[in-house]
């Protein structure tokens, strides 16, 4: 997939519930297990039975704009990982 013309990695979250799921207070980190690296903004909600894409594009700035979430960091293709933290861990 491309993000504003860049070939970039992304993370896709899925909500299998019949209810929307709020990410308020949750955070995501890329390549290291550090809570708070990317904090989801107020209003970040995964729709019922829906998906959310979060870009991991180190060539673009961090974005908390709905539909264009970007961590501002690239995934390490050799040994990278993504870590999702609940509100209590951040």
Question: How would you describe this structure to a colleague?
Answer:
The protein is mainly β and 90 residues long. It has one domain. The chain is built from no helices and nine strands. The protein has strands at residues 2-3, 6-7, 9-14, 21-22, 27-30, 38-39, 45-46, 51-56, 82-85. The strands form four sheets. A three-stranded antiparallel β-sheet has the order 6-5-9, with no helix packed on it. It has a two-stranded antiparallel sheet with strand order 1-2. Strand 1 and strand 2 form a beta hairpin. The protein is globular and about 35 Å long. It starts with a strand and ends in a 5-residue tail after the last strand. 17% of the residues are buried.
Which helices and strands appear, and what pairs or packs with what?
Elements lengths: L1 E2 L2 E2 L1 E6 L6 E2 L4 E4 L7 E2 L5 E2 L4 E6 L25 E4 L5
Antiparallel strand pairs: 1-2, 3-8, 4-7, 5-6, 5-9
Radius of gyration in whole Å, from Cα? 13 Å
Number of extended strands: 9
Widest sheet: strand order? 6-5-9
What is the overall silhouette?
globular
CA-CA gap between termini: 29 Å
Helix content: under 10%
How is the biggest beta sheet arranged?
3 strands, antiparallel
Taken as a percent bin, the fraction of beta residues is 25-35%
Counted up, domains total 1
* Nearest-integer average pLDDT: 88
User: Could you give the order of the helices and strands?
Assistant: EEEEEEEEE
The tally of helices reads 0
Provide the structure class: mainly beta
Low-pLDDT sequence parts? none
């Amino acid at each position: 997939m491309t993000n504003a013309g860049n070939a970039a990695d992304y993370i896709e979250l899925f909500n299998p519930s019949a209810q929307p799921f709020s990410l308020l207070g949750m955070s995501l980190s890329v390549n290291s297990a550090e809570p708070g690296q990317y904090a989801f903004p107020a209003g970040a909600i995964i729709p019922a039975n829906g998906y959310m894409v979060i870009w991991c594009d180190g060539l673009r700035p961090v974005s908390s704009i709905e539909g264009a979430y970007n961590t501002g960091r690239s995934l390490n293709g050799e040994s990278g990982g993504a870590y999702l933290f609940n509100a209590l861990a951040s």
